[in-house]
Amino acid sequence: MTGILVHGDNHFIVRGPHPDRATALALARHWSVIQIGAVTPLELRAWRISTREFREDLQWAFVVTGCGEASPAVRTLLEELAARGIAIES
Q1: Does 19 have pLDDT greater than 90?
Q2: What own/partner pairs with CB < 8 Å and gap ≥ 24 does 83-90 have?
Q3: pLDDT-derived band of residue 11, with 50, 70 and 90 as boundaries?
């Protein structure tokens, strides 16, 4: 599955199952701070950031609190997903 994880003014296109809230928060924390040589925790290895996906293929969306607000482009994408019937969780 492919989805979008929005964290404040940052976002990640993610391959993996639809996360629960605790996992979405853990993913946002893990990916928001660059740690050279860091190993992904075992419980987060089912997800990975993807750099090439089609917006039509996104199947889930999660918005977690972060610094700043989502960009206009990300807000538009979330609106498109909602129009397709995809729940935007937070």
Answers
A1: yes
A2: 86/58, 86/59, 86/60, 86/61, 87/60, 87/61, 88/61, 88/62, 88/63, 89/21, 89/24, 89/60, 89/61, 89/62, 89/63, 90/62, 90/63, 90/64
A3: very high
